[in-house]
């Protein structure tokens, strides 16, 4: 048996995978974790990355890195219009990516390449791969639930749900219960046509690929998995949660993680702290930022708050806070620029996560059994928040805008009242399921085996 496994590994050792992450934190993290998982299965790994939000190869000595000059102007790279940026990356990366792939494919000194694994939002890579006659497998870094909604966009447009009209926000989307129109994964304030274009690129490019990998697990999104398996004629592999495989992996953080958060947490009572963080892209007005600050302060709970530079529009960092704000809290608050989030969520002092419900954050919170206060900003975050609060029932969604009194009330409901205990019980059960799917015979490990054998057959 052992010999058989060795031979299999040996065979795969002669195979290389090329991975291409979308250059944003919530996409880089899962792609690098996936690389680590597939490397542990015997594949050699090459990562292609853009100069924009460039990766640090020294963190991954086992992988080969190639950087491509996507040629973004400084003004484009710093734009807050995410949709325009993703669209532009799909245009500007095409030539340099194809040149890089050409070189890799013709390099006889390297192992043959089995397939390309690229982010679903790098939809241009489907045509490049087809031209090169190289199979492409997609990594979708969001959940299955929101993908089902993205795949329904043509229907939602036909039936008049999209574009969204303010008068319809509270209407139920009959085709996708319990979602209401306000939960649909749109980005307000951007050009809708461009947004529909990238959603269509993601969905159609995924459908045309040789398979889709998901950082999720069957027990969490079973009915959405069934829907996608019916609608998509290609193999689908939910093999998450990626960060819970027992593998040593380096940090792929673009910002330095402030370790002082852990020593501060060490001094707090068990399950007493609210951890508040809104991910790498969301932005707030100064007025919203102040409501959050006062809501947290008035809750009387200790809190660890990530205020990323750039979180508050028009401010460098904490300038909008009234002077002396932190001092009056007598050590009850710790504010940092970026956290070691996985360690924070796993810390026994953390009792709740006030999150924007990016998929990684949502999954990370589930895996540690930490109930959530949900405050989605845009796109798939809105669907994730609805699933957390209404389907899995492991969090409370702030529904009525940002108001300090409302925030204080929600924190009490979660941290002090019986309702909070119920949410905590339910998320502990989900945590167990997440753990189980990575144990022997668990669904994600079985799906990983299927993925490995699928990839191994792609180039034969
Ligand atoms: N993250 C982190 N430190 C922080 C905040 C976030 O390391 O202070 C990580 C977090 O663990 C997650 C990723 O950044 O893996 C954010 O991804 P997510 O999908 O939650 O949100 P996005 O940033 O894409 O909106």
Brief characterization of the structure:
The chain contains 18 helices and 13 strands. It has 460 residues and is of the alpha/beta class. The longest helix has 19 residues, at 418-436.
Characterize the structure shown.
This protein is of the alpha/beta class and 460 residues long. The chain is 43% helix and 13% strand. The protein is built from 18 helices and 13 strands. It has helices spanning 2-13, 25-40, 74-77, 82-92, 94-106, 124-132, 144-151, 153-158, 192-207, 222-231, 260-266, 286-298, 341-346, 359-368, 380-391, 404-415, 418-436, 443-458; strands spanning 16-20, 44-50, 64-68, 113-119, 136-140, 212-214, 236-238, 273-277, 303-306, 333-336, 350-355, 372-374, 395-397. A seven-stranded parallel sheet has the order 3-2-1-4-5-6-7, with helices on both faces. Strands 10-9-8-11-12-13 form a six-stranded parallel sheet, sandwiched between helices. Helix 5 (94-106) runs parallel beside helix 6. The longest helix has 19 residues, at 418-436. The relative contact order is 0.12. The mean pLDDT is 95. The structure holds uridine-5'-diphosphate. The site of uridine-5'-diphosphate has 19 residues, from helix 2, helix 13 and helix 14.
């Amino acid at each position: 048996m052992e010999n058989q496994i060795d031979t299999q590994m040996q065979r795969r050792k002669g195979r290389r995978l090329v991975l291409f992450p979308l250059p944003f934190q919530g996409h880089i993290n899962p792609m690098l974790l996936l690389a680590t998982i597939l490397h542990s299965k015997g594949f050699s790994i090459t990562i292609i990355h853009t100069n924009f939000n460039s990766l640090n190869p020294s963190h991954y000595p086992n992988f080969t890195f190639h950087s491509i000059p996507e040629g973004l102007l400084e003004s484009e790279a710093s734009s807050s219009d995410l949709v325009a940026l993703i669209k532009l990356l799909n245009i500007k990366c095409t030539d340099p990516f194809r040149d890089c792939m050409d070189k890799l494919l013709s390099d006889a000194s390297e192992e043959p390449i089995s397939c390309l694994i690229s982010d679903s939002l790098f939809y241009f890579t489907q045509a490049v791969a087809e031209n090169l006659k190289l199979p492409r497998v997609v990594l979708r870094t969001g959940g299955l639930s929101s993908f089902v909604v993205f795949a329904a966009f043509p229907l939602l447009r036909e039936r008049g749900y999209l574009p969204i009209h303010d008068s319809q926000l509270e209407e139920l989307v009959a085709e996708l219960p319990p979602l209401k129109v306000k939960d649909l994964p749109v980005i307000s304030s951007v050009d809708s046509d461009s947004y529909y274009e990238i959603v269509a690129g993601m969905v159609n490019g995924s459908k045309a690929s040789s398979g889709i990998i998901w950082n999720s697990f069957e027990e969490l999104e079973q009915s959405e998995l069934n829907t996608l398996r019916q609608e998509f004629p290609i193999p689908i592999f939910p093999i998450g949660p990626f960060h819970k495989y027992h593998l040593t992996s380096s940090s792929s953080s673009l910002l330095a993680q402030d370790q002082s958060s852990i020593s501060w947490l060490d001094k707090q009572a068990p399950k007493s702290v609210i951890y508040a963080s809104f991910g790498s892209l969301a932005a707030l007005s100064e007025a919203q930022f102040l409501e959050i600050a006062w809501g947290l302060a008035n809750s009387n709970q200790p809190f660890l708050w990530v205020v990323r530079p750039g979180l508050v529009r028009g401010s460098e960092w904490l300038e909008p806070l009234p002077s002396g704000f932190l001092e009056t809290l007598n050590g009850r608050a710790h504010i940092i620029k970026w956290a070691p989030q996985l360690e924070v969520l796993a810390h026994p002092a953390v009792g709740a996560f006030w999150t924007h419900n990016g998929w990684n954050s949502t999954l990370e919170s589930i895996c540690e059994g930490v109930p959530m206060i949900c405050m989605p900003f845009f796109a798939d975050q809105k669907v994730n928040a609805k699933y957390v609060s209404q389907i899995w029932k492991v969090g409370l969604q702030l529904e009525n805008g940002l108001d300090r009194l409302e925030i204080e009330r929600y924190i009490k409901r979660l941290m002090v009242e019986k309702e909070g205990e119920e949410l905590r019980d339910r998320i502990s059960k989900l945590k167990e399921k997440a753990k189980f799917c990575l144990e022997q015979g668990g669904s994600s490990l079985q799906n990983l085996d299927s993925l490995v054998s699928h990839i191994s057959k792609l180039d034969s």
